[in-house]
């Protein structure tokens, strides 16, 4: 069927059905990217759109491109997004209150106007009869061969430039995320000595032990039922996303009130 | 069905991406919207390839993907760096360009 | 070195300018010696305090000896070969136009070299005594040397630009020396006044030089004088008038005379050297040196004559009313230079006599000033003559030298002034009867006010302040006075007999024109002497027969006006200074309101506009993205619409 699709010059009924099923999904998922309060949800809707687009590529004879779309975009780029989201804080949900005056209204109006203009341009343009890429594929002896021939002959210079861009980006990302050490690294012997001398020569307790939830953001409970601060990562405490037991949370609120008074 | 419908779909997705860049404040979501715009243009390229019966449109779309990947790498690195110093991923916070 | 050039002088004859060789090749040294002294004294600082004054005096003395050797050598040459040119280097080569640093030593400059170095040397010697107790003695001698160097440069230069350098140099030295005691605000003001009024004249000089450059393409004497006959009469007239303006500024002639009286604020030796004997005569030198220009323009000569005759009467009248001995002498200087300018304006008939009177005047006026300085020295710097009286017994040498100078200036034969002034009056009479009458009248008034000075100072009863004990000045001061006194006695006859001065200057200014007089020369001389004696007699009856009141009487309207220099300062203030002030105020107003208003207005417009535009620069990335999208919409919209 894939062969058939790739070779089809004109749209078949099957393609029409597939298009009308997929296009609303793509548009809906794209709109949901905008409307999700949580960035993680946006990322998932984004992945949806990309997969739909991959299918649309394949429907139009871009089989190689469709596969690349799934592998590179949905597989790598979107995972990178999710990775960074985890780093930045997955729970944070955005406020939808617009802070810039008229930004939202102007943005939507301009966007709509732009869309109207684009579609007007498309509707006014005269296109040739759709011929499909089948002939081009056949000339090169296959679809992937055709793309390979184009990349490594006509577009070889572009290809090299793009490679350089990619390498530069990789180096640049390393340079940007690299953090200078401000203090000299403490050697292991000193660290051991400090540790033995501290009040906690033993390892810190693991989080989630004796807790209702078993997760890193849930502190371990000490024998007296209070939470052990030492068992959760410092970063989480700093972000204020540590999950306490109900009893512990009530105790903490009471403590804070007492401090306030 | 008319193959031009792919182009209309591409336009709609592009506009949605553009509006997303304008209205969302989370830098990562803004980035996703940019990716959406790139993908929409890729769809247009693939459609043009099919309409004209040659493979070049697909090759260009391929290059766009590569460049987009590079851009994502750099963009996310910048976001991480900014987040590290400012504890925020909002594009409105780094407004030091203002006088 | 310049090749020998044949220069066509005025119709009188030819002057051959040959390369300076032998002792004449040392002409540059004449200037370099005093300049060296000035540099050493002014840059050497306190280290030169001990020997500086002596060094300065010695250097001027050496310069005088060198000049004397050159003079003797020159006398040995035939009359037509007495001009020598020396070109040191090209100062400013600008395309076809170039200015050389070159000197021209001819009989005219030779006369000045001798006058400047001799009188200058004597004044240096005199100053050794006069300034002995001044803590700033070294600076004073440095300035004096600077003056001598500049003055020599002025008279030795072979082109007008170099003359201008010397001209400004003497102006600077004059300014520095008038304001030498600048701790006194009025002295500093007097120096500034002299400087500013001199600048007015200097504008004439610089404009004349520019006119020469555009007309002749050169400022060298040879080029200008050989080209002047081809120039249009208008250009020649303009050049003459501009040079006259320069001369009036430097020589304190009407209308730029007002600074000389105040210039007496300087130390008395300065008054003697700069403001009596040498610098103020630079204007006369300039006119005589430029004789080919003035020969060709009757209009310019007429202006010179008018300036001369008006100033000689003006100065004489002012001299009658002054009680300050130095100011009386300053007025006299003004008047005597008026005689010289008058003679120079008479053309070939008078050039030689202008220089003649200049030389004799240099001697007797310097002597008179040094005498006045000696009197002040003995009277604790008192300058009011009403506080003098009967000093001839207290300071006999001063009295005798002063009296000799007095006889010379009023023109009693056989003293120096008699010969020179007599010749000028004769020439003036031959030119125009009224000029002659004015000159004779001036001689009478001169006799009156000089007699008044002598009678009030040396005769009559003593009117000294109680704590003043007059005494004779030290040897270093009296010796120069005696030498100048001897000069005042003999110089006139020496130069006059056998028409020596006329023949000497003939290569430069042409032969003397014979003038026809309706009456015999002896008769004229008799009339002049008679008028002079009348002036003396009036002074005798007013200031010797009657006691001189210590407080000046109110006097008539004319006296009061003369005491105020005929309101010259008030005139300058109301005619030039006030309107100038109003003009500058208007210009400042115009500048502030209109020009600045326009500039500031446009700046405010841009600034205000920018402040509003700045609101667009929110710093929010999303705002910028919105602008970009708007731009994209615009571009796409235009593209789509154009395709329609």
Q: Any key phrases for this structure?
A:
heterotrimer, A: 261 residues, mainly alpha, Four Helix Bundle (Hemerythrin (Met), subunit A), B: 99 residues
> What is the global morphology of chain B?
elongated
* Mean pLDDT over the residues of chain A: 83
Order of helices and strands of chain A: HHHHHHHHHHH
* CATH C-level class of the domain at 1-92 in chain A: Mainly Alpha
Major β-sheet profile of chain B: none
Number of separate strands of chain B: 0
Tell me the fraction of residues in β-strands of chain B, as a range.
under 5%
Number of helices of chain A: 11
Percent of sequence in beta strands of chain A: under 5%
Q: Considering DSSP H and I runs of 4 or more, what fraction of the residues of chain A is helical?
A: 55-70%
State the oligomer: heterotrimer
Q: In terms of per-residue confidence, which ranges of chain A show pLDDT below 50 for 5 or more consecutive residues?
A: none
Number of strands of chain A: 0
| CATH architectural grouping of the domain at 1-92 in chain A | Up-down Bundle
Work out the helicity level of chain B.
Answer: over 70%
Kindly report how far apart the N and C termini of chain A lie.
75 Å
Radius of gyration of chain A in whole Å, from Cα? 28 Å
Task: Kindly name the structural category of chain A.
Answer: mainly alpha
Helix tally of chain B equals 3
Q: Helix/strand-derived class of chain B?
A: mainly alpha
Description:
- The complex is a heterotrimer of chains A (261), B (99) and C (644).
- Chain A is mainly alpha-helical and 261 residues long.
- Among the domains of chain A are: 1-92, Four Helix Bundle (Hemerythrin (Met), subunit A); 205-260, no CATH class.
- Chain A contains 11 helices and no strands.
- Chain A has helices spanning 2-7, 13-35, 39-59, 63-88, 103-124, 134-140, 143-154, 156-177, 188-197, 234-239, 246-260.
- In chain A, helix 2 runs antiparallel to helix 3 and helix 7 crosses helix 8 (156-177).
- Chain A starts with a helix and ends with a helix.
- The mean pLDDT of chain A is 83.
- By secondary structure, chain B is mostly helical.
- Chain B has helices at 4-23, 27-52, 56-86.
- In chain B, helix 1 (4-23) packs antiparallel against helix 2 and helix 2 runs antiparallel to helix 3 (56-86).
- Chain B is elongated, with a radius of gyration of 17 Å.
- In chain B, 60% of the residues are buried.
- Chain C is mainly α.
- Among the domains of chain C are: 304-514 and 550-563, no CATH class; 564-603.
- Chain C has 24 helices and 4 strands.
- In chain C, strands 1-2-3-4 form a 4-stranded mixed beta sheet.
- In chain C, a hairpin with a 5-residue loop joins strand 1 and strand 2.
- The model of chain C is unreliable at 1-14 (pLDDT under 50).
- At the B-C interface, helix 1 of B face helix 24 of C.
